[in-house]
TrEMBL record:
<protein>
    <submittedName>
        <fullName>Two-component system, NarL family, response regulator LiaR</fullName>
    </submittedName>
</protein>
<keyword id="KW-0238">DNA-binding</keyword>
<feature type="domain" description="Response regulatory">
    <location>
        <begin position="20"/>
        <end position="136"/>
    </location>
</feature>
<dbReference type="Pfam" id="PF00072">
    <property type="entry name" value="Response_reg"/>
</dbReference>
<dbReference type="InterPro" id="IPR001789">
    <property type="entry name" value="Sig_transdc_resp-reg_receiver"/>
</dbReference>
<keyword id="KW-0597">Phosphoprotein</keyword>
<dbReference type="GO" id="GO:0000160">
    <property type="term" value="P:phosphorelay signal transduction system"/>
</dbReference>
<feature type="modified residue" description="4-aspartylphosphate">
    <location>
        <position position="71"/>
    </location>
</feature>
<dbReference type="InterPro" id="IPR011006">
    <property type="entry name" value="CheY-like_superfamily"/>
</dbReference>
<dbReference type="InterPro" id="IPR058245">
    <property type="entry name" value="NreC/VraR/RcsB-like_REC"/>
</dbReference>
<dbReference type="GO" id="GO:0003677">
    <property type="term" value="F:DNA binding"/>
</dbReference>
<dbReference type="InterPro" id="IPR039420">
    <property type="entry name" value="WalR-like"/>
</dbReference>
Length: 153
């Protein structure tokens, strides 16, 4: 599975100030891996992270990032509810769901809550990086499998 990055130009590093990113996932190893991959890019800066939806929304509203990478299934407040809170308080943030779930109901709920994109966790790190750049360029990154589920592929 890879994110559909048909336009290779979407993966070229951005110029200017680094894009600020918050990572929200209940698994520390996932957060650490994403931070390492993103911080290695010259155009990204991870400005915060959180292990659950409540603290994820708090961090995002405090840090005002360009992008939030958000898991769906977390203890307490899930990623869909957290996304709704973030989008209500900081609509400039592009929240990308980064999750293992390809259930069409969850996809629709996440997009309905204001998620800008939906990327499956089995994507390789390069595809996640390209998905973030794609979002920052105003293109909604959706994993190919999700596009098919929604009837667009």
């Amino acid at each position: 599975m890879t994110v559909d990055v048909a336009v290779q130009g979407d993966c070229i590093p951005l110029t200017g100030l680094p894009a600020r990113i918050v990572v929200v996932d209940d698994h520390q190893l996932i957060r650490m891996g994403l931070r390492a991959a993103l911080d290695a890019e010259p155009d990204f800066e991870v400005c915060g992270e959180a292990p659950d939806g409540v603290s994820g929304a708090e961090v995002a509203l405090r840090e005002r990032p360009d992008v939030v990478l958000m898991d769906i299934a977390m203890p307490g407040v899930d990623g869909i509810e957290a996304t709704s809170s973030i989008v209500a308080g900081w609509p400039q943030a592009k929240v990308l769901m980064l999750t293992a779930f390809s259930d069409v109901r969850l996809v629709r709920a996440a997009l309905g809550a204001g998620a800008y994109g939906y990327v499956l966790k089995d994507a390789d790190p390069r595809s996640v990086i390209c998905a973030v750049r794609k979002a920052l360029r105003g293109v909604r990154p959706i994993s190919a499998e999700i596009t098919e589920l929604l009837g667009g592929g």
